[in-house]
Design a protein that fits this description.
Length: 755
């Protein structure tokens, strides 16, 4: 327990430096107390022993703890009675709507298998993913730690030349941490495993820190930078005789185990083992519970998750019409089609479905639309060589689904159009057309073609009025229908495709015309990631963002759904829900006009950015007071075809931010023109900048966010080259050296996902 002292007592500073946890009057007065909710996912075969060991350790604190036990439903425990499991254990579906202050994921006797071979691996991944949002701090033990490091950070485990079994001496790698507060310089921990994780692999992940290790047993304790994940490779919780029981078990199994190291007196397995780790085990668990759970968790446990989002998306009586658009990867093959059909069947409100063409089945695969473009752009003879590839892809699909769609007949029509420039868009649109036919056959929904129902004007711009009139009427005649995405009809009746990815537009058009309550966009990610997953592995997705935030994030290069494709629903303020076809149980991201009714849990909605920028800083006394000069400056950029990303102005200077690709080749010419027309005191150019946008609606009301942004970067000693608070006040733009890009994004992500 912390020691509470008067606010300004000089002892605070000394004790804080000594790592004694001191709480001031003010904090103590504002700290509310309630029992801690702790969940144990028990994967050990010796269920009762593990329950007892962990309960003993968790009970050794003055904090009140309410314990729940969780089992996997994909794997039935064999060493224990069914009654015990039914009486004391819950399954994930029973608890997944709840939040926990802490969770322990135990070890499991499956370490020699590949993770993916373990029969409950998928379920465990789901639980680990869930833990990021529903648990304040997760404590992973032994195989649980290896599984967590692999799932969350891609760190592999390696088989040891021989089993590590015994009690080993450990030291702290990081002395000032709270998890090992009060530990001696040397301490002992039992280990019992055949596999290990490598120090270098962990050190290569900036968000992880090794806090304790052993010369013989390797890395022992690791924590994530935001303190919400702890990974412990040893078994502090073991009883005096656990290693002995495992040793005897292995002996009886004829494995011929070595005597556990440093365990039996004189290595004599007839003597009673000496316990050297119990006090450290108690301290470790009470430190975790106190500093990593109790002191930092939310008093209002519901704030760990976004319950309001759940209510909005599911079980909402006000929602009776959903339009679901499925993207290319969701329809890449028969398996994926079946997942979509199951999603459609799952809710009767999903009455209109919009489909893309089949996308890539694997990394190096080709999208059907790309093959169609190839056919449309070749002469007839060459195109006829490509067509069989396409035809067989559809035949395999139709056969795999067992539906009756006459592919030969459809391809005869396409063959007829080959080599005719006027039929180019018709050919390219067939990917979506055929998919809609197949989905209609699979689900029994009606087929409604986009040809003759969605209209464009002579400039190829969406004709809202005509579409509303015609499509609106047609939809009324069909209770449930599938509509192909990506194309519409020109005034002369010909087919015209939209820009690439344009099925998103069709989905939004259908949702707007049908007056849907929600537009679901089903893809292969669980929503809008807070950061680029190529920079931070498995990032959290944002539960709720506004249309405006999406716009800001798209502007800085974030992908998933481009704001240009959603204008029809934005206009009529229909919420958009980005969902994952491969994980329909995830809520994904909800994009709304007004997010006031949703708890966000996070104070920013996204961090996006790009490398490859330069700045041109032009100085001239009182520059800002001379509008003509400013206009001349902008003209110079415009004439030279250099798009300006951002402009920052001071009293005597203007700084222009541009993309390197537009600027590189004409840099000298541009500077010469500026010198000639503006006569500045100086022009200075900075290359190799990365621009980062921190977007969040709370930025406009909470100055603390800007302070956090700057603090997070200052802590990593990152030099900020420029700052701009966007005019909408929901974003903040920073320029840093390209070399600091990844580390800046990591620092910001860590800062804003800390609860
Ligand atoms: N099939 C089209 C494309 O690849 C449209 C879409 O998938 O949204 O761009």
């Amino acid at each position: 327990m912390p020691i509470k002292v008067p606010n300004n007592l000089p002892a605070i500073e000394t004790l804080t430096k000594e790592n004694v946890f001191v709480m001031t009057d003010t904090r103590a007065m504002t700290q509310d107390i309630r029992p801690l909710q702790i969940l144990i996912l028990n994967l050990m075969p010796t269920k009762v022993e593990t329950e007892t060991q962990l309960t003993r350790l968790l009970g050794n604190t003055p904090l009140q703890v309410e314990l729940e036990l969780l089992q996997t439903s994909t794997h039935k425990a064999t060493n224990i009675s069914e009654e015990h499991m039914i009486a004391f254990y819950k399954t994930f579906s029973q608890i997944k709507h709840k939040n926990y202050d802490g969770m322990i994921i135990t070890g499991a006797p499956v370490e020699l298998m590949d993770f993916e071979e373990v029969d409950y691996w998928d379920e465990l991944c789901e639980i680990m993913e869930w833990s990021k949002r529903h648990v304040h701090s997760t404590f992973h033990i032994c195989w649980g730690a290896q599984a967590g490091l692999y799932y969350h950070y891609g760190i592999k485990k390696h088989i040891l030349p021989k089993k590590l079994s015994g009690v080993y001496k450990h030291n702290l790698d990081y002395k000032n941490g709270m998890l090992f507060r009060g530990f001696d310089d040397e301490f002992y921990v039992p280990h019992s495993r055949n596999t290990t994780v490598n120090r270098e692999d962990i050190e290569a992940v900036p968000g992880l820190k090794i806090i304790a290790s052993s010369e013989e047993a390797g890395v022992y304790a690791i924590k994530s930078e935001n303190d919400r994940q702890i990974f412990i490779t040893g078994h502090s919780e073991y009883d005096a005789d656990t290693l002995m029981k495992e040793y005897i078990r292995d002996k009886n199994a004829g494995i011929n185990p070595e005597i556990p190291c440093n365990y039996f007196p004189d290595d004599d397995d007839t003597k009673e083992p000496t316990v050297k780790w119990r006090s450290c085990a108690n301290l470790l668990y009470s430190n975790w519970l106190n500093y990593f759970v109790y002191q930092t968790t939310q008093y209002d446990i519901t704030q760990i998750e976004d319950a309001s989002l759940d209510a909005m998306i599911h079980d909402n009586n006000d929602i009776d019409l959903k339009v679901a658009k499925f993207g290319g990867t969701s329809l890449a093959d028969a398996e994926q089609f079946k997942k979509c059909a199951a999603i459609i069947e799952a809710e009767k409100e999903r009455r209109y479905v919009v489909v893309s063409a089949p996308g890539k089945r694997r990394e190096n695969d080709v999208k059907v639309t790309d093959l169609l473009i190839e056919c449309a752009d070749k002469n007839k003879a060459e195109a006829e060589e490509v067509l069989p590839k396409l035809m067989s892809r559809y035949k395999v699909l139709v056969r795999g689904l067992g539906v009756d769609v006459d592919i030969d007949k459809e391809f005869e029509k396409i063959t007829e159009a080959l080599g005719k420039p006027a039929k180019r868009d018709y050919i390219i649109s067939r990917g979506e057309y055929l998919n809609a036919k197949i989905m209609s056959a699979l689900t029994g929904m009606d087929f409604v073609d986009a040809e003759g129902t969605i209209f464009l004007d002579e400039n190829g711009i969406y004709d809202e009025e005509k579409t509303k009139a015609v499509l609106g009427k047609v939809l009324k005649e069909h209770e449930r229908a599938v509509i192909p995405g990506f194309y519409g009809t020109m005034p002369d009746g010909s087919i015209k495709t939209f820009s690439r990815g344009g099925s998103d537009i069709t989905g939004a058009i259908v949702a707007a015309v049908a007056g849907a309550d929600i537009y679901e966009n089903w893809t292969d990610v669980s929503g809008f990631y807070m950061v680029d997953p190529r920079v931070v592995a498995n990032p959290l997705s944002v539960p709720v963002i506004t249309y405006k935030e999406l716009r800001e994030l798209s502007y800085m290069g974030a992908s998933v759904l481009h704001e240009d494709t959603i204008f029809p629903v934005v206009k009529v303020e229909i919420p958009i829900n980005i969902r994952n076809t491969n994980r329909p149980e995830d809520n994904g991201t909800l994009i709304v006009k007004n997010a006031d009714y949703f708890q966000s849990g996070f104070s920013v909605s996204g961090i996006s950015g790009k490398k490859g920028y330069s700045t041109i800083a032009i100085e001239k006394p009182r520059f800002n007071e001379q509008p003509q000069l400013r206009a001349d400056l902008l003209d110079i950029f415009a004439y030279n075809g250099v798009t300006i990303k951002n402009i920052l102005s001071g009293i005597d200077s203007v700084t222009v931010v541009v993309r390197d690709e537009f600027f590189q080749d004409i840099e000298e010419q541009l500077v010469a023109e500026i010198e000639e027309k503006i006569a500045p005191t100086s022009v200075s150019i900075t290359h190799d900048l990365a621009m980062i946008a921190i977007v969040g609606r709370e930025l406009s009301t909470s100055p603390a966010i800007a302070v956090k942004v700057l603090g997070a970067l200052a802590n990593r000693k990152i030099n900020i080259k420029l700052i701009d608070h966007g005019s909408e006040k929901i974003s903040m733009m920073l320029g840093v050296d390209e070399a600091d890009y990844v580390s800046s994004i990591e620092a910001l992500y860590t800062e804003f996902t800390r609860l």
